[in-house]
Amino acid sequence: MNPRSLPSVHTPPRWEPATLARCHDLGSDVRLFEVRPDSGATAPYTPGSHLPLQLEFDGHPQTRHYSLLEEAGDAGVYRFAVKRLVHSRGGSEHLWQLAPGDKLTIAGPANHFPLSFANPEYLLIAGGIGITPLYGMALALHRAGKRLRLIYVSRDSAREHFATALSALGAALEVYPDSASAAPAIQRAVAALDPAGEAYICGPAGLRRHVRALWEAEARPPWALRYETFANGGERPEETFEVSVRNLGISFEVPPHRSLLESLIDHDIEALYDCQRGECGLCAVDVVSHEGSIDHRDVYFSARQHAADDKLCTCVSRIAGHGRVVIDTRRQGIRD
Ligand SMILES: Cc1cc2nc3c(=O)[nH]c(=O)nc-3n(C[C@H](O)[C@H](O)[C@H](O)COP(=O)(O)OP(=O)(O)OC[C@H]3O[C@@H](n4cnc5c(N)ncnc54)[C@H](O)[C@@H]3O)c2cc1C
Ligand code: FES
């Protein structure tokens, strides 16, 4: 069975050639890239935007997205920071092999995480490399004179770089080395946020779940909590698990380097999906039974729905403990 790359249901991006102009390390595993479109013109973009890149690795074209850092040094370049992930399908590793002058394929900036600017107060919470979309937002809010608090939780090698680059925020920036030390500050910040305030989060699944639980406990409106997910890993490492699709009578293994969604498509099973980041819920299927624990990596379902273990988002969630799962795909796309 040949693994396939998944197309998006959105309008295909308009790819264009570009050149890596410069790159340098912000830390031992985070590198800054400056990419110049060969047309010579960059498109304008708003805080929270990202740049789609088409990379050739693993035998076929794959799309990866990188949040654009504000305040490009030179006009005419897009700047983004990439964390090198060793246990991944290889997109970040591929970028780390590039040298100035190498060719790239990019599309114009897109923004799925727009900043409203309309509210009296903003709480931004970044975990690790999740600082990248919030970096430009924090500087833009600061310049606009908005009330703002940025809680940055990171052990990353680039932490000092970003903390220094954001020093204009003064006391509005709080930096913590890990979630345990940040937890009391996050709890206080959620409780103290203006009732009309908004929170923007980008970081690992555990951080997002923690903030969401606090948000729900404070009975704050769900629409005022905004996420960007980087399709991050879950609580457990990727392992092989077995899946049986009850309504089709088909069983197969999902290897560590393929998602359940990719494996369904590899086996010619029609599957609905959109974001492929655990945000939209379109890929969700019913779980009939399972052995081993479900590592829910989506942000679409609530904590209560995760605990029920009766649905999972096939694009990101997995079974841990070399387990197995029986699913039913007939209700795909039906929202409860
Ligand atoms: C809008 C947006 C903005 C982004 N901005 C940045 C940025 O500024 N900087 C940055 O470094 N990254 C950013 N990313 C993430 C980036 O696009 C890539 O996902 C990242 O570089 C990893 O790519 P990869 O191919 O190396 O890893 P991938 O293989 O895509 O792995 C990414 C994560 O998915 C998990 N994973 C891997 N395989 C599977 C599988 N089979 N099933 C389930 N989970 C799996 C891994 O544990 C890993 O944590 C952004 C992503 C999005 C969507
Ligand atoms: S495709 Fe959007 S949650 Fe899976």
TrEMBL record:
Which PROSITE patterns does the record associate with it? 2FE2S_FER_1, 2FE2S_FER_2, FAD_FR
- Domain FAD-binding FR-type positions: 13-116
Instruction: Kindly give the InterPro entries that the UniProt entry links to this protein.
Output: 2Fe-2S_ferredoxin-like_sf (IPR036010), 2Fe-2S_ferredoxin-type (IPR001041), 2Fe2S_fd_BS (IPR006058), Beta-grasp_dom_sf (IPR012675), Cbr1-like_FAD-bd_dom (IPR008333), FAD-bd_FR_type (IPR017927), FNR_nucleotide-bd (IPR039261), MRET (IPR050415)
**Residue intervals passing through the bilayer:** none
Every 2Fe-2S ferredoxin-type domain range: 241-333
Q: Which Pfam families match?
A: FAD_binding_6, Fer2
Q: What is this protein called?
A: Oxidoreductase
Supply the source organism for this entry: Salinicola endophyticus
